[in-house]
Amino acid sequence: MTDNDQRRRDWMEGHLDWAAQELGVERVGTPVHTSRFHSVGCRALDASEDAWLRVVYDDPEWGDGDYLGNNVAANDIQGVPKPTVKRWSEWEDNGRRMRGEVSTFVADAAISTGMTLAAEPALSEQWITDLDQALQALSTHPVPDSGVDASSVNDGIRAFFGIDVDIASVRWTAAHCDLHWGNLTAPRLVILDWETWGRAPAGYDAASLLCATLTYPDSARRIRHALAKFLETPSGRIAVLAAAVRFLRFADGGELTDLALPVRRYALEIIDQL
Predict the structure, then answer these.
(1) Residue 144: is the preceding peptide bond cis (ω within 30°)?
(2) Which entry of 81, 125, 180, 248 is 20 to 30 Å from 190 by CA?
(3) What was the pLDDT predicted at 61?
(4) Are residues 57 and 160 in the same domain?
């Protein structure tokens, strides 16, 4: 850890202490930081009930739109197992916008500590069914104004695959937009981290999860079969290319490099079907 990382870590945990006082909860868990120390959270007691306390800061490089408010906005989504934000507060630190939230506690752990798998997960058929139903319910929610950037995806498809696709012409729905194994719990399914949810080509969440699974062929086949209704449609095939662009950009930046080849192969398979 660099000195700058340590300073950011200490700074975020200081704000976590402040948020606990402001929101009236008692910190009882070890702080958990996300990548690049963009947010921090821990288990807390809220009137003797387990809860989750989280602090995040506004960073223009992290995302477009008012993503700090997206966890609260996601409270309106019905039929999807997810945390509920109970209350929140905002403040500033030297001009930087900060946000603290108290949410319902999720007892089951995330399947992975990162976006991809570290081993084949033991997922029940009920878990697979619950995921299918959750994605169907989410797709019926009113479509938000912000989310996946169509122009950026079109540019990426052209750069990585040398073809032109009008991604804006396919059906778009509400989507989590960051569905991967670090945002899914088991043995009971809960979908975590709704900070970047918004609009996306129909099937984008299924495509993203499948791309994140391609280094584990058995699990990938299971996910592809279970979520075929989202993937094997005109918009679903375009959604696969959109998800592939995202993962290939990660690889270009030195992250998730082991996914680059299988994701490219999968995308080329889909291009042959267009």
Answers:
(1) no
(2) 248
(3) 60
(4) no
In 146-247, the DSSP E strands lie at: 172-175, 198-201
Q: Which of 243, 192, 209 is nearest to 128 (CA)?
A: 209
pLDDT (tens digit per residue) in 155-210 = 999 999 999 998 888 999 999 999 999 999 999 999 999 999 999 999 999 999 99
CB-CB neighbours of 63 under 10 Å: 18
Q: Is residue 120 part of a domain?
A: no
**Element (DSSP H or E) covering residue 241:** helix 234-252
Kindly state whether residue 189 falls inside one of the protein's structural domains. Answer: yes
Residue 42 is given by DSSP the state E
Whether 65 shows a pLDDT value over 70: the answer reads no
Bridge partners, 85 (sequence order): 103
212-256 pLDDT, tens digit each? 999 999 999 999 999 999 999 999 999 999 999 999 999 999 999
> Looking at this protein, which amino acid is placed at residue 253?
G
- Return the number of other C-beta atoms located less than 10 Å from residue 268's C-beta: 12
What are the angstrom distances between the C-alpha of 208 and each of 169, 186, 201, 224, 242? 20, 18, 11, 11, 9
- Domain presence at residue 116: no
- Read off the CATH number of the domain in which 153 is found: 3.90.1200.10
pLDDT band of residue 64 (cuts 50, 70, 90) is: low
Flag whether the pTM goes above 0.90: yes
Domain of 17, in residue numbers: 3-104
Within 10 A of 157 (CB to CB), how many other CB atoms are there? 21
For the chain, the domain total comes to 2
State the CATH number of the domain containing residue 61: 3.30.200.20
Question: Is 33 within the bounds of a domain?
Answer: yes
Stated length of the chain: 274
Same domain (yes/no): 43, 140 = no
Let me know whether 69 and 100 are in one domain.
Answer: yes
User: What would the two tokens of residue 173 be?
Assistant: 């729905």
